[in-house]
Amino acid sequence: MTAFIHRVYAGRVTLVCFDSDKKVTPVALVQKSVTYFNPPTDLDLDSLKSPSWILRPIDNQTVEELARSIANMGLLQPIVVRRRELEYEVVFGNHRVEACRRVGMKRIPAFIRDFNEDEVFLARISENLVRNSFVNPIEEARGYRMLIKNGWTINTVGRKIGKGDSYVCERLAMLDRLGRDLFAKAYTKKGHLTPSPFELLSRVGDTGRQKELAELVEKRRLSVRALEDILNGVPLPTKVTIEDNCGALFVRIPTEYAATMEVTAGQTVRMYARGRKLVLENTTHSKAHRKRRIRLPVAIPLRR
Fold first, then answer.
1. Beta-strand (E) ranges in the chain?
2. CATH code matching the domain that covers 2-165, chosen among 1.10.1040.10, 1.10.3720.10, 3.90.1530.10, 3.40.50.300
3. 34-53 as b/e, with b when 16 or more CB fall inside 10 Å?
4. Could you tell me which residues come within 8 angstroms of residue 166 by beta carbon, excluding any fewer than 6 positions away?
5. What pLDDT digit, counting tens, does each position of 79-111 carry?
6. Percentage of the residues of the chain whose pLDDT score is greater than 70
7. Are 156 and 165 in contact, with CB atoms under 8 Å apart?
8. How far is CA 71 from CA 4, 45, 61, 92, 107, in A?
9. Burial class (CB in 10 A: 0-12, 13-18, 19+), 226
10. Chain-centre distance for alpha carbon 34
11. Does the pLDDT value for residue 14 go beyond 70?
12. Judging by beta carbons within 10 Å of its beta carbon (0-12, 13-18, 19+), is residue 56 exposed, middle or buried?
């Protein structure tokens, strides 16, 4: 059984344990708190090399905040490294290493562990997912592909990182289905798009359509749900003019909205206010329309 450090607090260390023998059916990640008696080793910062697998790029703001904290309080949590010939490779704590360098430290406390490549990737991805940190989706997907080539199954990988099969499959799909431009954006984290929209866009077979939708999401700052609606054929929010007819106010329902709601002239619909929105619902009592009513309410913004 192999374990890696998850968190150090008040003299206790939280370990995440997993079976490193691939000949035995791997067990799911199990987290448990244990008292760790062996103290960390002080290592020369010059003996450390950057991780071989960069899942989380260095964020200067995070490093600056850590540097201020270390300058005032010292380093509260040791890093984790593995031996690589005459050097040590950082497994966890790349931001802490950079922050320590910026405050002028020469040595840093570290737990030294023996990891192979598969274990290093699993440890890093699990740590970042537990912390809910941004992870480069392309590098993450490449890591899953490496594990599968090394004999792991999608189900086993998902259990190791605490995710379902669909999560792993959607990440892998980005490698094969994203167009070149979107692939580059996903890798460099440029623009408004996060990994979730990239997963949805990878389902679109036409790379030109992928690019068009990506530009629309960035331009309008659309949510993941809004992008899902677009892929399901729901029309985009639109502006309409409130008209005056003999002292009464009315709006014209655009044709695409009427088609989506499956309403026709003369039909009765339900209208109510939700905040500053005027909502129209199709109240037809058929099962199909009830589903349509639940899934596709039409909201028309009222602007002064």
1. 2-9, 12-18, 30-34, 41-44, 48-49, 79-84, 87-92, 107-113, 243-245, 248-250, 269-274, 277-282, 298-301
2. 3.90.1530.10
3. eebeeebeebeeeebeebeb
4. none
5. 999 988 888 999 888 999 999 999 999 999 999
6. 81
7. no
8. 27, 16, 15, 20, 14
9. middle
10. 30
11. no
12. buried
Residue 238 in tokens: 């639109």
In 10-106, at which residue ranges do the beta strands (DSSP E only) sit? 12-18, 30-34, 41-44, 48-49, 79-84, 87-92
* Pairing relationship of beta strands 30-34 and 12-18 according to DSSP bridges: antiparallel
DSSP annotation of 47 reads G
Q: Which residue has the higher pLDDT, 277 or 225?
A: 225
Domain with CATH 3.90.1530.10 in the chain: 2-165
Phi–psi pair at 41, nearest 5 degrees: -100, 135
266-291 residue pLDDT tens: 888 888 888 887 788 887 755 444 44
**The pLDDT value given to residue 285:** 52
